[in-house]
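Async update (no meeting this week)

Hi team, since we skipped the sync, here's where things stand on the single-chain job. The sequence we agreed to prioritize is pasted below, unchanged from the tracker. I ran it this morning and attached the output directly underneath so nobody has to dig for it. Comments welcome in thread, and please keep replies under the output.
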Amino acid sequence: MNQYSEIIATEWTSQTSSTPDEWTPNKPERGQCVPTALVVQDLLGGDIKRVRMTGLHIDESHYYNVVNGEVVDWTDAQYDTMLVSMAPAPIDLRTEGYMSMRDRLVANPDTNARYELLRARVFEQLARRAINTDLRST
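Output:
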């Protein structure tokens, strides 16, 4: 999993960020939670979860993965944990017409484009390095 997180992090850019004006090489995880959670699910399976992050100049949704009961959140460094609080923010997906959180996220064209771009870059790196792209069964 460590190789995956390193490769994903190297492929983050302002183009894959939901907040491109706030993205910098010094804070590369900024705005990357949704495309990252989707790519992590492609690689590791599990569920995508949503929370609400609030604090100084922050009031936004944050997404992460739960794989085999373990939290996988490779973008949490974008928040100063001393100044931000996190609260569950469940969504009634069926009421909104979605079967899964993934379906809801990729239904947004901008989100889907950022995900597809990150996914293509990550899978290209994985292929180049001959790294297994499906650890869900291991």
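Quick observations from my side:
The chain has five helices and four strands.
The helical segments are 2-10, 33-44, 93-96, 101-106, 109-128.
Reply here if anything looks off.
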